[in-house]
Each structure stands twice: as C-alpha cells, then as structure tokens.
Amino acid sequence: MVRKRRTTTWQVHEAKARFGEVVERASTEGPQTITRHGAERVVMLSIEDYRALVAHKPDFRAYLLGGPKLDDFSIERDRDTGRKIAL
To answer: What CATH code would you report for 8-65?
Structure first.
C-alpha cells in the first residue's frame, strides 16, 4: 500500500549535493520530487512504495479481458443502398 505523505521538493543541484538525505527522506517521509528549472522531472520513492505501485499492474491479457462484455452486443445493419446519382 502506498503511503500518503507530504512530498518534499528538491532542485536537482540540491538533490545531487544532498543525495543521501534525499534517499533517507524518501524511505521515511515519502516521495521526494526533484525539479529542474522549476519543472518537476523525477520522483524518488522508497522501495516499499515502488513495489506497492507495480504490484497491482495487470498484464495486457487481463487488461483486455477486464473490459466491458460484448456478448449481447448487436448492431442492426441499415439496408439503405444510398441515393441514385446521374452519371
């Protein structure tokens, strides 16, 4: 289960200089967002949070089979042949 906590934001140069602290905070306080030029670029997660995120990802077959059931789906064809065009 992903823990919901306040995300701390780091500028990339600050995160590089204090990498050990960023790693520790990711494991104790929750996700750490790293920005470059003011734009969010990366989120550092603890291994527990990461595993919780990927644990519930269905495979492609399960995804397709999980869609709406079309067993009773029927389409009636329109018998109109169109209009006559003088050539």
So the answer is: 3.40.1620.10
Residue 43 DSSP one-character state:
E
- Distance between CA 25 and CA 9 in Å, rounded? 11
* Neighbouring residues of 32: CB distance < 8 A, sequence distance ≥ 6: 7, 8, 9, 10, 15, 22, 25, 26, 43, 44
What is the pTM assigned to this prediction? 0.59
SS3 21: helix
Measured CA to CA in angstroms, residue 66 lies from 7, 30, 55, 62, 72 at distances of 33, 32, 17, 6, 16
Confidence category of residue 37, pLDDT binned at 50, 70, 90: very high
